Amino acid sequence: MVSRQPEFSYGGQAVIEGVMIRGQNHYSLAVRREDGTITHLQEPLNTYFTGKLRKIPLIRGFLALLETLILGIKALNQSAALAMVDQTPEGQKEMSPWVLAMTLAISLVIGIGIFFVVPQLIVTPIHHILHSDILINVIEGLLRLVILVGYIWVISFMDNIKRVFCYHGAEHMAVHTYEAGLSLEISHVRQFGTPHPRCGTAFLLTVVLVSIIAFMFLGWPELHWRIISRIALLPVIAAISYEFIRFSGLHQTWWIARQIAVPGLILQRLTTRQPDDSQIEVAISAMEAAIAADTGQEYVVRFNKSAEGDSQAPPLVD
How many CB atoms within 10 Å of residue 290? Predict the structure, then answer.
């Protein structure tokens, strides 16, 4: 075992039958095709998200949120195309940039409607009963939290989502293995649990919790101003939440950092599942491909077996 502190904190997300890993200057995508092989791609990240602004506190939180939305939808689209490539001779085409932009816009509208407009519509009729602006704002925030947890709980019963959650767990386990300085082997990955303190799920939960504190002091203006104020403050709340998650992820030896991570780790019991070995192979491939791209190496997926059953390439990370 090699013990070291990683120079860069890799992260990613689960996609359709695969895993995306975000590296320093590139991201990689590894997907299990219908024929059982793993295919991957590596692309450079937009320099807007990797430049000097990414190092400035608070600003980096907003950039991280924006990048997560854009890169997340792009990776989902690419994974769908890669996973379905065996169904037709020409495979499934990726969506055009304008369709991706429209998808992102629609997703934002739906998200704002569910998590900001709906709670307001529910609590507005009871404001005159409570006669407390602070209390009604807290109730609205708690309702937003219930909607978030309820939404995740409901979709967790869907078969396709269960597989995504397995890949989510595999991604976390691979990141844990890399951060522990172990080689990316299935036996090593299996030593770690599926939750991770820097998970996007933890980030969403932190955003909701921070918003409860922030919004409780905004009073109770007209409905349209309440909705506008919450949308306008979302980038600020996301920036603050990112700093909490970043601090927690980088200082897990500190007691306070571990306590900050606890709510997110608990929620990840819903968003992660224990993966099988084939899903761990995909996560390892995505991690190795991202590291290879950042270091200028050529990467060949080593879990695609040859006719003799031998791996095609040796482990990349030692």
Answer: 30
In single-letter form, the type of residue at position 4 comes to: R
| 11, 21 Cβ separation under 8 angstroms | yes
CA distance 66 to 147: 22
Taking residue 53's Cβ as centre, other Cβ atoms within 10 Å add up to 12
CA dist 197 and 179 (Å) reads: 12
Question: Cα separations (Å) of 5 from 179, 253, 304?
Answer: 7, 13, 30
**What three-state secondary structure class fits 272?**
coil
What are the pLDDT digits (tens) for 195-249? Answer: 999 898 899 899 999 999 999 888 888 988 998 998 899 889 999 999 999 898 8
Rounded CA-CA distance 182/189 in Å is: 9
Q: How many beta carbons lie within 10 A of that of residue 274, not counting itself?
A: 14
Strands (E), the chain: 11-15, 18-22, 26-32, 38-44
What pTM was computed for the model? 0.86
